Please model this.
Amino acid sequence: MDEELVVRAKGGDPEAFRTLAIASHPRLFSVAFGILRDRSLAEDATQQALIDVWRHLRGLRDPGRFEGWSYRILVHSCQAEARRRPSWLPDDVVPRERAPVTIAGFGRVDDRDQLERAFRRLSFEHRAVVVLHHLAELPLEEVARALGLKVGTVKSRLHRAMEELRAAIEADARPADPMSLERGTVR
Model:
């Protein structure tokens, strides 16, 4: 991010902030969608984060840390959206632009669906760490700063999240026991 632009926006220049917001929106939305797994909620969280960035920008001490600081604000917005989400809303479907158009792509859809189901089982805290580290490609130290955590806590959450993902995928891959279906219990 251009530090001069951050400094100008921090000084109250609305055009500099507009440019900054337009440049930041795609990365913020990508992370919000990664965490929330719902386009509408991700857009709301991103918009709220940009409003909060504008409101609190004067308090940013180091313009060079704008990206991590804005991720921290975004994660708080995502938490608020997740708490407001009604439980009856359907999950997002695979976006058309990412859906395969050939039969050869069915294996990838199945894999993506399996990963999506496993990812949705993660806690909000675990999803945030995975998305910031793997999707936003932030080093663990930056993830820790963005979340206001110690690096050891981030490492622990990331490790635990990956274990939970593996376990969920393996559990989904196991065939159901026909005897348990007859008894009404599924293992």
